[in-house]
Amino acid sequence: MNVLSVDYRSPDAPQQFAKSLHETGFAVLKNHPIEHSLINEVFTDWQDFFKGETKHKYTYDPRLQSGYFPFRTENAKDVKQKDLKEFYHLYVWDKLPEGVNERTWKMFHGMSRLAAELLKWIEDQSPTEIRSQFSMPLSQMVEGSKEVLLRPIHYPPLTGGEEEGAIRAAAHEDINLITLLPAASAPGLEVKDKSGNWIGISCDPGQLAINAGDMLQMASRGYYVSTTHRVVNPRGPEARLPRYSMPLFLHPRGDVKLSENHTARTYLEERLREIGLLKQDQRKGGA
User: Fold this and answer.
1) Inside any domain, residue 287
2) Where are the alpha helices (DSSP H) in 52-102?
3) Angle CA(23)–CA(274)–CA(215) in degrees, nearest 5?
4) Within-domain flag for 282
C-alpha cells in the first residue's frame, strides 16, 4: 500500500494528495500550516483533562453527541467488544470543559480551515465524471456545518485483564468526509490493504495523517476509498503506557444529499446506532 507523504508547500500537492486518497484512502501531509508547538500544547491540556475526575461532569448527551464518553462506550460496527478508550466530542457550538485552555479552539479552527482546503483539492482533482455525481461541490457541503467534530482520545495503559478480543480501536471506517489526525503520542494505527493485510501507518511528529470517510466514498460513488483501519494493542513495556490522539472529523451539513438513499444526517444517525452511541429510538439533535 503506497500511502503518499505529501508536502503541503509543493506545487503538485493537490494532485498527489487526491491520488493517494483515490488509491489508498490515506495520505500523510507534511509542512502544513498547523503549528507543531500548538498541537503539543493542546495534547498536554487534554492529557490533564483525562487524568482528572472533573471529566465525569461532562458525560455526553446522546441526543447532541457532545461531551465526555467514558471508557468502553463505543464499539466498531458489527464488533461485540467495546473499544479500550475514552474520548470527548467537541463541536464548534460547544463550550470547552473546565481546565482546558482556549488554544484548543485555535487548533480546532486551524484544522477546520485546512480540512476545507483539502476538500477543495479533492474536488478540483476529481475526474469530471466523478464531480458531476456530487449533489453540490464538496466545498459547499461543509459551509455552515455544525457537525465538524474534534475528538480527543485517551487509550489507557493495558492491565492484562482486558476482555478477549478487545483492542484500542477495532477495525472500522470513518463516517465523515475526511479525517485529519495529528501524529498520535504512540504508534498503533494500521490500515488494511486491498489484499487484506494490515499495514502500519507512519506519521512523524508534526505531520498529519488524512483519510477519506464513508461520506466521501458515498458522494464519489466509490472513487475515493474509505479504508478500514484500527489501533492495535501494544506489547511489552509499551503496553503499560497510555496513547493519546486527536482526530478532526470533517462532516457536511445534515441536509446534504450523499446518495439516492442518504442525506448526511440519515447516514450519520444510522452509523451512530451501529457503534452504540445512539439508541434505536433516538435521533441526533442539533445546536
Assistant:
1) no
2) none
3) 35
4) no
DSSP lists the bridge partners of residue 59 as 68
Angstrom distance (rounded) from CA 122 to CA 267: 21
> 26-36 pLDDT, tens per residue?
999 999 999 99
**DSSP states of 84-99 as a string?**
S-EEEEEETT--PPTT
Rounded to whole angstroms, the Cα distance separating 59 from 61 reads 7
Mean pLDDT of all residues belonging to the chain: 95
Does residue 280 lie within any of the structural domains?
no
Residue 38, phi then psi, degrees to nearest 5? -65, -45
Q: Decide: pTM greater than 0.85.
A: yes
Query: Which CATH number do you get for residue 180?
Result: 2.60.120.330
By CB atoms closer than 10 A (0-12, 13-18, 19+), residue 195 is exposed
User: First vs last Cα of the chain: how many Å apart?
Assistant: 40
Residues in the chain: 287
The total number of structural domains in the chain stands at 1
Residue 64 host element (H or E): none
Cell of 151: 475528538
Quote the CA–CA distance of 95 and 89 in Å, as a whole number.
11
* Distance of alpha carbon 184 from alpha carbon 188, whole angstroms: 9
Is residue 279 a part of any domain in this protein? no
Residue 287 and residue 138: Cα distance in Å, rounded?
A: 23
pLDDT digits (tens, 9 = 90+) for 80-129: 999 999 999 999 999 999 999 999 999 999 999 999 999 999 999 999 99
Which residue segment(s) compose the domain that 83 sits in? 5-274
